[in-house]
Write a structure and sequence with these properties.
The protein is globular and about 60 Å long. It contains six helices and seven strands. The model has no long low-confidence stretch (mean pLDDT 95). By secondary structure, it is an alpha/beta fold. The relative contact order is 0.18. Helix 2 crosses helix 3. The longest helix is centred in the middle third of the chain and has 18 residues. Helix 5 links the parallel strand 6 and strand 7.
Length: 208
């Protein structure tokens, strides 16, 4: 069965602009793709495993062709389970607010958990990395409250969209669409940008 995985990086619930835009997308998607399962992964729900010393040791063991042991084995099993949830989907929706010019740390944690050899990527000493999530596609929703194109460096910089886009392509996902909502603070009128983002979300949800 085809599956869409929505990965939400905002902890703000219904007050989150990125999650509200995601809901527009998902409602349109569900209406036009009734045969596709939708899996909602709220990264703040407490189920995302940590990636600390045992997980890091397990990753290095795997790189060396060894089996993780002890706490490392438990951490590795948790990473595999999280990766399988990612890999079970053929379509991804990411809703990502900007935090301090980048992505929320919980999304970086998710990426660190699943980005493992033999799962998200393979590595060859001569050829380098190869992404293994080929044949999948993604939509990324990006929101920010201060940063916006053309506003100058005193309004921040964008390490949010380039980071996630780079990771997706590194992982093998080449078919990527984006939705941006970055209100113009100079006019204090967010409605036009919000309406445009919601309309694009609905259109992409129907066509995705």
């Amino acid at each position: 069965m085809s599956r869409l995985l929505h990965i939400s990086a905002s902890p703000r619930g219904d007050a989150s602009e990125s999650r509200v835009i995601a809901r527009e997308f998902l409602d349109a998607f569900a209406d036009t793709h009734p045969d596709v399962e939708i899996d909602e992964f709220d990264l703040w729900d407490g189920t995302l495993p940590a990636f600390g010393p045992p997980a890091a040791a397990a990753k290095m063991a795997v790189f060396a062709g060894q089996q993780p042991t002890g706490e490392g084995a438990d951490a590795w099993r948790a990473a595999i389970a999280t990766f399988r949830r990612l890999d079970a989907a053929d379509r991804y929706l990411f809703s990502v607010p900007m935090w301090n010019a980048g992505v929320p740390y919980i999304l970086k944690q998710f990426i660190d958990v699943v980005s493992q050899p033999g799962m998200v990527f393979s590595f060859d000493p001569d050829e380098g990395y190869s992404g293994l999530l080929t044949g999948k596609k993604a939509v990324a929703i990006y929101t920010s409250a201060v940063y916006g194109p053309g506003r100058g460096p005193r309004f921040g910089a964008d390490f949010q969209a380039p980071y996630l886009d780079s990771w997706l392509r590194w992982a093998g996902v080449a078919d990527i669409e984006e939705i941006h909502f970055r209100p113009d603070l100079a006019t204090a009128d967010a409605e036009a940008g919000r309406a445009a983002a919601h309309a694009r979300a609905r259109d992409l949800g129907k066509a995705f």
